[in-house]
Structure formats: C-alpha cells, structure tokens
Amino acid sequence: MNNHWNKLIYRAGAPFYDFLFNAGPFARARKKVFADLALEPDKRVLLVGVGTGADLRFFYGKSLEITAVDLSPAMLAQAKSKVGENENVQFLEMNAEDLRFADQSFDLVIASLILSVVPDEHKCMSELVRVTKERGKIVIFDKFKGGEGKLPLIMRMLRPLIALLGTDIGRNYQAILKPHLGRLIIREDSPAMLGDMYRKIVLEHK
Asked: How many CB atoms lie within 10 A of CB 90?
C-alpha cells in the first residue's frame, strides 16, 4: 500500500463508502465506541482519517473545536456535506503519517479505521501520540490481527489481495502500541465488532 494508490482507491470508493462501512454493523460499532466519551466544551478534537465523516455526528452540539483531516479530497468532500452550519469543524487535506500540527495540540484524537490503511502504521501512531496533550485521550477503532501467533492460512493468502483495496487485515495492535507505552496508559482495550478483529482502544497520554 502507498498513499498514491490509497488516494485512487478512495476517490473511486467515496460515493459508496457510507453504504459499505458506515451502516449496519459498522454503524452499531461506531455508536458503541463513542457512547461513553466524556466531552467537555471548548476542547480541541482531531479526527485523523475522517473519511466521509461517519464519526462527526458523535461530536455535534457539544461546543467543541473540531479538526478533521484526510488524505483523500473526495472523502473530505463527502464529510463536509454532513456538517451543519452551526458546527465548528475545520477540514484539512493531510497525511496521517505527517500531521502538520504542533506537539500536544489536541485534547482528544480519534483514529477510526486509519492504522490499518496507512502505509506505515508505526509512523502514524507516533504522530497520534505526538499531537495529543498530556492527560489527553486517543480513541482507536480499527481491525487488527487477533491473538498471538501467525494469521490463519486463509487470512495470509487473502492479505495481499485485500491490500490492493487499500487496507491491511494483518496488523498487530500490540506491536503498534508497544513503543509508546512509556507515555500512554491503556484505559480500554475491548472487542468492538466481528469477534476481536475490530477493537476499541482508549489511550491516555501521561
């Protein structure tokens, strides 16, 4: 996977993305992920890889300062169409592996279905941590390789084919988090959908 290919994939898929990934079990999982977030007015929130804006509705009406970034202009256009005129949302075209923000800029960082699609998940995770304030939170909703050991044979066979669609089904979230555990507290790590394949992970910056 690379960013140029991902842009092409998401430009083609933007009109259909909501139907595939923002409805049914995905919609229920997103609602579960964000149901218990404590959001205080005037906090700065960053949605990394906002896509078509499926998560935006969970932050409306709460007097937040919201920044939403995505690599794909087509996805951003879909997200912008979901915003009411009274909401404070800034949309920026940006690479999740190179977030153009100062250190410790945000109180809450949302990473939905982004660590599995960026070319370098470790670089992306480092950026998520860098831009989060002390005592700030990072919320991750994504698919990862479940359990220890190798992927099942069928998953190993499918992995390179699925990667052509712009996503990786074999990434290990424990390996992604490990270099940062000196600065992060894991507040929650729980299954969110399809057994333990999709997970909700809540991290607090020390």
From this structure: 10
pLDDT digits (tens, 9 = 90+) for 151-196: 788 888 888 888 888 899 899 999 999 999 999 999 999 999 998 8
Decide if 200 contacts 33 (C-beta within 8 A). yes
Query: Which residues have a Cβ under 8 Å from the Cβ of 197 and sit 6 or more positions away?
Result: 143, 144, 146, 191
One-letter amino acid at 175 equals A
One-letter amino acid of 91: F
pTM to 2 decimals? Answer: 0.93
Question: If you ran DSSP here, which 8-state letter would residue 117 be given?
Answer: T
**R_g of the chain computed on alpha carbons:** 16
Coil, strand or helix at 124:
helix
- Cross-strand pairs, 46: 67, 109
Q: What size, in residues, is the chain?
A: 206
CA distance 71 to 88: 20
- Triad 123, 125, 130: Cα angle to 5°: 95
